[in-house]
Specification:
Largest sheet: 6 strands, mixed
Order of helices and strands: HEEEHHEEEHH
Number of strands: 6
Distance between the termini: 56 Å
Helix content: 25-40%
Oligomer: single chain
Strand content: over 45%
Radius of gyration: 26 Å
Strand order of the largest sheet: 1-2-3-6-5-4
Shape: elongated
């Protein structure tokens, strides 16, 4: 649900860091902890998705559309790998600053919209927060992991067409209510 954000972060990190770090490799969607000698590596990948159980259900027009708004958050993890602990610290500090200072740009460019025949799903990121950072390897190669939360709002709109309404009218239901129960003789067969 945050693929556009991951791609946007990668682009921004490349723009900001390529001239500063001579051998930098940015990997997407894979939590690598491996490095080649003399290469700094940043891995950016999605984590756990959590849905806020409270949602707003709004019917815009009973016969035409139904809108549901749902908040969710997804972890965004970034591993910074290097054979030099000082490089890990420098890159970690810069990555954190780049993400937190570019939030407004990310909000404006990472809205996604998916459509089917009757459903439209629009997801908009509203907040990016640093939740923790820790060394996951304190020996060569050194690996520091940053975890962010990307909080988003999902708006789902379902359009009910005349065809759908017509199909619903054609369903025939047969009721057995009021029928007598079978006699004991019939029930034991």
């Amino acid at each position: 649900m945050i693929q556009k954000l991951i791609n946007q972060i990668k682009t921004e990190l490349e723009t900001e860091l390529n001239d500063l770090i001579s051998k930098l490799e940015i990997i997407l969607y894979y939590p690598t902890q491996e490095i080649d000698k003399d290469v700094s590596r940043i891995a950016i990948y999605p984590g756990k998705l959590t849905i806020n159980q409270k949602f707003k259900d709004t019917i815009l027009s009973q016969k035409e559309t139904k809108e549901i708004s749902q908040e969710f958050q997804q972890e965004l993890s970034i591993n910074i790998c290097d054979s030099d602990r000082e490089n890990v610290e420098k890159i970690t500090s810069l990555v954190t600053a780049i993400i937190l200072t570019n939030q407004n740009e990310f909000y404006q460019t990472t809205t996604t919209k998916y459509n089917s025949k009757t459903i439209s799903n629009t997801q908009t990121i509203s907040q990016i927060s640093l939740i923790e950072g820790l060394y996951i390897s304190q020996q060569n190669p050194f690996v520091f992991q940053l975890k962010f939360d990307a909080i988003s709002l999902m708006k789902i709109v379902k359009t009910v067409t005349d065809d759908t309404i017509e199909s619903i009218k054609e369903i025939e239901l047969k009721s057995t209510m009021g029928n007598s129960l079978p006699s004991d003789k019939q029930a034991t067969r």
